[in-house]
Every structure is written in C-alpha cells, then in structure tokens.
Automatic annotation (TrEMBL):
This is Acyltransferase 3 domain-containing protein. It comes from the Bacteria. Keywords: Membrane, Transmembrane, Transmembrane helix. The chain crosses the membrane at residues 33-49, 61-89, 109-126, 138-155.
Length: 171
C-alpha cells in the first residue's frame, strides 16, 4: 500500500517512511501485532529497495543499522540473526522454487489474516477439552490445517480475483 511512496524521487518521503516503519517496533505492543515486527519488515523492504536501485547505499546502510539496533534491543540478537540469515538465503538463491513454497507464498497474506481468527480460535476452544500431550498436538495440527484450508479458499475466492481485477484496471 505504501510501497509506491518509495518509488518516487522524494527523498524526504523515503526517509520518513523508513524512520516511521522501524520506529513502530519501539511502540509497546503484543507480539501478535504487526507493529512489534515492523523493523523486520523494514529490513526486507530496504533490501528490496536496494536491489531495485530505489535507495542509495548510504541510505541502505544507515537504516539497516537503525533497524538492527531496534531489533537487537527489542527482540534480541538471536531474532536478528535469524532474520538476516533468512535474507541471506533469499539473496543467495533468488531463483529457488518449489511447489510447497509457491503455494504458501500465494496464500501467505490470507493465512496471515485468518490464522488468528480461525486457527487460534479453534485451538483455544479445543485445547480446553483435550488434555493429553498427543491430543494437544492433534489440536494444534488441526488448527494449522484448518487455517491453511480457509486461507486457500480466501485466496481463491477473494484475493486472487482482486489481483486479476487490479491488473485489468491498471491496463
């Protein structure tokens, strides 16, 4: 939604975007909310902007240092290392494809929107009725599977047709 701001020539807008995005992580929030993880998103967006030559090397380094500081102090060094390692793998294998990854890539936004409403609610509801360890594992697995199924249908019925419509309107 805000990515078009980064494609323009206005440097002030880009700086404001990155400062705001990284700083959102400093706002006290629950780990389930986007705000808590916004500095991670900033690192990925900075990488994408640098690859697409939308920002200078100085801007890339400066805001990555700021994001690193925020993530390390807010979430911890281990979390930062995991994030950087993931980005390193993406950079090293840009053409890596597999069917499972493609599927989850397609439904990822829908899964993000639905998992706490459908999956977590189901797990919360059923976990009070099943107490044995193997039962809890089954409940969590069921919540995961149901979330994926709902996310797929959400993607198929809403998200995918909307993307097609947007492409047609863009022409």
């Amino acid at each position: 939604m805000l990515f078009p701001l980064l494609q323009g020539k206005n440097k002030f807008t880009k700086h404001l975007f990155f400062i705001g995005l990284i700083s959102l992580s400093l706002y006290p929030s629950h780990t389930k909310f986007y705000i808590y993880w916004s500095a991670y998103f900033a690192i990925g967006i900075l990488y994408t902007c640098k690859i697409k030559s939308l920002i200078s090397a100085k801007t890339f380094i400066a805001y990555n240092l700021f994001a690193a500081f925020v993530v390390i102090n807010h979430q911890g060094l281990n979390d930062y290392i995991i994030g950087i390692f993931t980005l390193f793998l993406i950079h090293q294998y840009p053409n890596f494809k597999n069917h499972i990854g493609d599927f989850f890539g397609k439904i990822s936004y829908s899964l993000y929107l639905i998992h706490s409403i459908i999956g977590a609610a189901l797990i919360n509801f059923l976990s009070k009725r099943f107490n044995l360890p193997y039962q809890k594992l089954l409940v969590i697995s069921l919540g995961f599977i149901i979330s994926i199924v709902f996310a797929y249908f959400f993607w198929k019925l809403i998200e995918h047709p909307t993307h097609k419509l947007a492409k047609r309107l863009k022409k």
